[in-house]
Amino acid sequence: MSAAATLPLQIPPTAHKLRSTATGEPAWVRWTLIALALVFLALFLFLPLATVFYEALRKGTGVYLNALREEDALSAIRLTLIAAAISVPANLVFGIAAAWAIAKFEFRGKSILITLIDLPFAVSPVISGLIYVLLFGAQGWFGSWLQAHDLRIIFAVPGIVLATVFVTFPFVARELIPLMQAQGNDEEEAAIVLGASGWQTLWRVTLPNAKWGLLYGVILCNARAMGEFGAVSVVSGHIRGMTNTLPLHVEILYNEYNFAAAFAVASLLALLALITLGLKSLVEWRAGAQADTDLPQERPAS
Description:
Largest sheet: none
Shape: globular
Helix content: over 70%
Number of strands: 0
Number of helices: 16
């Protein structure tokens, strides 16, 4: 064997430079991008959020608490909670059923169902509110029948709930569908072979495997339900103390130049956003930790 064959392979210095250039950017480029991202976050996220709380508390905690204890504000809070309390469980049931059907079964019209689930993402919330007005308004398709039976949907709580359900129902389904598809059907098929019924398979196999995705979808659905403005604004009628949710109440106060009260109520929505962000991060962390523990562990070599 020649001496050249025993020498270690020497990589030319130019090869190291080419490899570093191909796999990464210079340090100044990375730091510039990081600085631009931080400036963007500071100007368009942190500064507006801090402004909301500053303006809400600028005139003192007494003014802040009085704005939240005002009768119209309490009514808006109650209506927001009612709309979320109805729409989130309804979308939870729909999301589980739709995701289970789409991910676990093959049937005719499956692509149409997926398209309908994505419809609220493609349609403006204002347009969806107008659709409900055309259906259930006084001059709508069912308006005369509703008036004859003394039933009110538009400019009442049922219309607000319907609009909220429409704009929020994709969130749970869209979180569960890709997760269930990635998990496959092996565990469900094994449970059925062992004698489990369809409901037992759903409750003891499918849902436990998708619990973090389900919780993530519920969190996003609840945040959207409480913060929805466009569709609810169309169907509510802006009746103070009756059909105003928190976002609508903020708009009315701001239009009346009652800035302290407007920012005080807006701070509740900002707190909701921060809580939602914290819960979202927690769910992502727990889901990642569980995924790491579920990975097969390498056995040490004997």
